[in-house]
Amino acid sequence: MPGKHEFPVQLVQPDGRRVLDHEHAPLIADVGPEQVRALYEDMVVARRIDVEATALQRQGQLGLWAPMLGQEAAQVGSAHALHPDDYVFCSYRETAVAYCRGVPPTDLTRLWRGVAHHCWDPHAVNMTNPNIVVGSQGLHATGYAFAAHLDGAEIATIAYFGDGASSQGDLAEALGFAATWSAPVVFFCQNNQWAISAPVRVQSATPIARRAYGYGMPGRQVDGNDVLAVLAVTRQAIARARSGGGPSFIEALTYRMGPHTTADDPTRYRSAAETEQWARRDPIDRIRRLLEREGHWDDAFASRVAERSDAVARAVRGATTGLPDPAPSELFDHVYTTPHPLITEQRRAYAEYLAGDPGGSSARGEGVPR
User: What are phi and psi of 188, to 5 degrees?
Assistant: First the structure.
C-alpha cells in the first residue's frame, strides 16, 4: 500500500479550479450545483456559530470553547458522507459535524456554559457529546462498530480526532482491535498542524495516514480544506465499512486558524506568516471561487446565506445567555446509568450540607480557622 497514494486527494484547488481525478471524482458525480451551494452554506453557518461562541466566551458567557475556524471543509465534507444510521464519535471540536447531523445550534453551548453534563441527546442524532478525554473515542467507535456488526446492523462508525491524539495509546489500541476484528469504523484524523503548542512534526516523522499500513488497513491523505475531496474520500471509506470491508484511516490536512481553545494564545508558538499562508487556502473561499467559476454564484444566494448564518448566531447567543443555572443536586445526575450507593450517599450528604448552611458561609471560608 505505501507509495500508491503519496499525494493528498484534491478535487478543487484553492483558486476554485477543479482537479481531474479519475478515482475520486466519480464518487461525487451526483453532487451538482445545488449540493455544492448547500455544502458552502453549511460551512458558512458553522463558522458563524463558531465565531459567535468564541465571542460569548470572551464576554464571560462560556467557561471555555474549542474553536474549529479553518476546519469547516474537513467536518462538513465528512459529515455529508455519513448515513443517518451511522454513528459519530467526536472529540471536542466537531461543531460543524454536530450541526450537519441535526443538532439544534441552540444546544451547542450547554456543556461549555457549565450548566449541564452534555449538549444534546446523542440518541436523537447518532452522535456522542463533546469528549475531553483525548483519544478515547477511537476505542468507543471500534467497540460500538463491532457490536453493531455482531447484531447484524450494516452501519459504520466514524471517530474524529486530531494529530495530537494520534500519539495516544488509546488510538493505537483502537486501530489494532479494529483491524483484527475488521470492525466497520472510519478513523478520521483532522491534522490541523498543531496539538496545542506542539507542531505535527513531533507527532510523527512520516504522514500520519501511513500508520494505517502497519495495521493492515487503507490510509489516505486528503486536502482537508477541499470539501468535495473530503466528501469523496469519506464516502469511499464509509461504503467500505458498511459493506463489510473493514476499517479505514483518513488524514485530512487542514489548519486551526484560531487557538486550541479560548484558554490558549497561538501567537506564542506559531508565526503570523504561517497563519497567512493557510488563510490563502481558506475552505469557504475555495468553494465560493468554484461557484463563481462555474456560474452558480449570485448576490441573492450570498445574501440568503449571510442572513441565515446571522439568524443562527442570534439564536445561539439568545439560547446561551438564557440558560438557567441548574439545581445543585443535578451535579449527581447521570454519573451512572443506574443508582449507585456512593452517589446516593454523596447526594444525601450534600443536601444536608446545603440545608444546614443556607447562607453558604462555610463554602466562603467564613469562621474557618486558618
Answer: -115, 105
Give residue-wise pLDDT tens across range 125-180. Answer: 999 999 999 999 999 999 999 999 999 999 999 999 999 999 999 999 999 999 99
Q: What does each C-alpha distance from 36 to 14, 58, 91, 227 come to in angstroms? A: 15, 33, 27, 9
- pLDDT given at position 144: 98
b or e along 12-32 (b: 16 or more beta carbons within 10 Å of the residue's beta carbon)?
bebebeeeeeeebbebbeebe
Q: Mean per-residue pLDDT for 49-74?
A: 98
Q: Are 274 and 80 in contact (CB under 8 A)?
A: no
Q: CB count, 10 Å around CB of 170?
A: 18
| Distance from the Cα of residue 213 to its chain's centroid | 24
What is d(CA 77, CA 34) in angstroms, rounded to the nearest whole number?
15
Cα–Cα distance measured from residue 78 to residue 274, given in angstroms and rounded to the nearest whole number: 26
Mean pLDDT of 314-341: 93
Supply angle C-alpha 218, 42, 193, rounded to 5: 50
CB 49 within 8 A of CB 313: yes
As a whole number, the mean pLDDT across the chain is 94
* 8-state DSSP, 61: S
State the chain's maximal CA–CA distance in angstroms: 76
Alpha helices in the chain, H assignment, sequence order: 33-58, 72-79, 95-100, 110-113, 122-125, 136-150, 169-181, 211-214, 227-242, 272-279, 283-293, 299-321, 341-356, 361-364
Q: 98 CB contacts (<8 Å, ≥6 apart)?
A: 90, 108, 119, 120, 125, 127
DSSP letter, residue 338: S
Cell, residue 121: 441527546
* Virtual torsion, Cα 141, 147, 149, 150, nearest 10 deg: 170
- What is the set of active-site residues? 256, 260, 269
Q: How far apart (Å, rounded) are the C-alpha atoms in residues 66 and 299?
A: 32
